[in-house]
Structure formats: C-alpha cells, structure tokens
Amino acid sequence: MQTIIARSLLNLKKNLKNLKKNQKVGLVPTMGCIHDGHLELIKKSKKLKYFTVVTIFVNPAQFNNQNDLKKYPSQEKKDLEILKKYDVDLVFFPKAKQMYPLGYSTYIKEINFSDILCGKYRKNHFSGVLTIVLKLFLIVKPYAAFFGEKDFQQLFLIKKMVKDLNLGVKIIGIPTVRDSNGLALSSRNKLLNAKGLDIAKQIYLNIKKIQYLDYKYAKDLELYLKKKLKKSGLNDIEYLEIRNSNNLLHPKKVVKGKTLRVFIAVYVDGVRLIDNYKLN
Ligand code: AMP
Q1: Please, is 231 exposed, middle or buried when counting C-beta atoms within 10 Å of its C-beta (0-12, 13-18, 19+)?
Q2: Against a cut of 0.70, is the pTM above it?
C-alpha cells in the first residue's frame, strides 16, 4: 500500500472516509525527527493490523519556551522516507494555523497531576499536550493510540484524560527504546555533540543502578543519585524524584516491587533531556 500524505484537515478526513467500516485506526502522534523510539510505536500499530496514522506536528501549545520551540529539530523529507519504508498508511502534517486558528481559546486542563515533575517546570505544557491529543482523537477517531513510556507523565495524563472524558480510545504504552549506551532515544539528542552525548549517557548508567541501592527513605535515595549524577558531569539537574507509577505520588519509604520509578529531567549543553526507570 502506498503511504497517503495529508496536509490539510479536509484531505485527511477525505482519506479516512474511504476506509472500510471494520478497519481499525491506530494513531501515533509525534513531533517528527523520526527515530527508532517512534518506530517501535508504529511497528506495534502495524502488527495489530491497524490502519496506521502518524501525525507530525511540533505543537506550539506545549512549549512554554519560545527558544525551545524554535530550536526543535525537523527533517520532513527524511521522516517521510522512513515512514514510507515502514508502510505507514497515512502521514498527517497538521498546520498550526488549522489546529489553532485565529481566536482559538479552548484548552484542556487536568488539575491533579499536571503541576508536578515536568509540569512544575514547564507551565501549561500538559495542557498543550492534552489539547492537541484530544483534537487529534476527535479528528482521526482512532480505535487505539500509541505513546512511549519515555514520556511517562504524558502517558499517565493521556490515560487519565481518556478515562475522565470517556473518550473510548485504547491507549497502548510502549517501553522506552534506548541506544547501545542506554541513552533514551529522543529527537532532542540530535542537538547534542559527541561530548554532550557522552555526558547524556550517564543518565541511564546511573539511574539503572537504583535497583541495587539499599536506601530506606526515598529522599535519601534521591539525594544520593543526584550526587552521583553531578559527579558524572550532569550538573544541571532540573528534578530527580522517585514516584509511584500508578498514582505519581511521592513515597516516603523505598519498597522494592512496589511500582516505584525514578523520574529525571536534566539539561546537557542547554538541551533538556528526560528519562524514567522502574525500580523492581
Ligand atoms: P515526540 O516526537 O518526542 O513527541 O514523541 C512521540 C511519541 O514517541 C511519544 O509518545 C513519545 O513518548 C514516544 N517516544 C519518544 N521517544 C521514545 C523512546 N525512546 N522510546 C519509546 N517511545 C518514545
């Protein structure tokens, strides 16, 4: 099958209308610069035989920092080549003007989990994320949508929105894909030079050791890990916190096998990287 490319809402809707009645749609929202992490989501959707729609949209509503938005990498031509190679059924490139026309003023706000972790440092970030994801759900009407565990808080909030708003979309979470050094794949890695990449790999090398550390209190474990990370060259840690995967609450004590997870955001050469790792 040829990959359909839609650049307008009208064109997208026309193409989706032509689908057979029982054809399930799998949606993979991305901001482009396609890498193996994105491809894992796509492969899963294809494996499940869904008509796979990939969207590429650097969503301005989720950027609190205009410089960060400007710097965000893009490689449209290469992305299309990759997506065609992986037999993606349809690629949708929404335009900011169509998603947020002049006078646009409706945003989703989740009130319990959006101001912690990344949300604490990126004001309105998750409101922007949930708004665009809801808009894409309403436009594409997918049976299922795929999101990476790399952005764990985002995945958590999307699941919550689907439940709270009875959206009836199946949300499928995909484990984080890493490079040979363990660094979580991210489009932002492209902004790092060799030295930056070398420092960035220390994130995973340190957080994965959490399994073997014997600390009674979460606060102490966090302090120890921060110290270790700083020693390995990661001086600009935005946050490092242990939270429960099921409710994002901060535990007082470290109890192994209790779905605890370490969450981190760190700047390397001015590039913001995030990761998380489950404590088994
Ligand atoms: P992004 O283009 O960074 O917005 O990511 C689009 C989707 O791909 C999101 O659901 C991300 O969580 C997911 N994703 C990004 N990087 C990875 C990765 N290394 N492993 C798994 N999923 C990822």
Answers
A1: exposed
A2: yes
